[in-house]
Amino acid sequence: MSSSSPIRLAIHGGAGDLDAVNSDTRAHRAALHAIAGEGLALLRSGAGSLDAVELMVQRLEECPLFNAGVGAVLNRDGQVELDAAIMDGRDRACGAVTGVQRAKYPVRLARAVMERSPHVMFMGAGADALNRELGLEEVAPEYFITEERFHQLKEARAKGVIVLDHDSAFGTVGAVARDAQGHLAAATSTGGLTNKHPGRVGDTPIIGAGTFADDQTAAVSCTGTGECFIRAGFGFAVDARLRYTPADLATACAEQLDAVRGYGGRGGCIAIDRHGLLALPFNSRAMYRAWVDADGVIGVAVGED
User: Is 297 annotated as a binding residue?
Assistant: First the structure.
């Protein structure tokens, strides 16, 4: 692919304080590389950015290595509560779901909310009912539960703590993309926090916090301490900095991560601006990520590598 190609993409699988140097991340890296490859092939075939981010997040939801879909963490009652959102940069159309337990692909349901309902967000039983009404794939809640997540919950209960997803097995997933027409899109999906109080919602399904896209500015997907990303209004704040100040994408994202840190949070984001520039910053020790820049080559990294 020539350097003049407008196609760009990035995906993430969570950010946190993993020791990237001494941890075995080969399986995660391989999964990220393969999923980014699927997204790249789709964009090269002429598909739009919205289709690409949905596909890549769906593949991440299928992968038990990450905290979304299969392999999602469990709440205090041993249940999954899945959140997802998607946003189209062409017109800010968006859809989100929170606390779903039966939708096989929460990101697909989020897109259906956007395209097949007059609303933006559905929650819990209502979201699962909509999934059924629209004929999307449905599974029993046990479908999502893995042995590793069950043991993580037992340990968290024994210690009496709520474990951030990025401090155990990584993590919230997301994707951003710029297609051949220059359109932007973003999608994010998560299982939340291990041992969280049932009903807790983080930044993932909050449009303008953990998920955002506008062709005039940037596409952003976040991972980390959700409450702090909400307080920072992360996605909208990046948009505002690009729209109303001289800041470039890297500066805008870095300044907002400073705001997250100021609220006591940590994590990272993946972002693509309207010019095709990428930013993948994080203020924790690591963030699982893969990307395709102007060179058309898939890059994968975990720590500062």
Answer: no
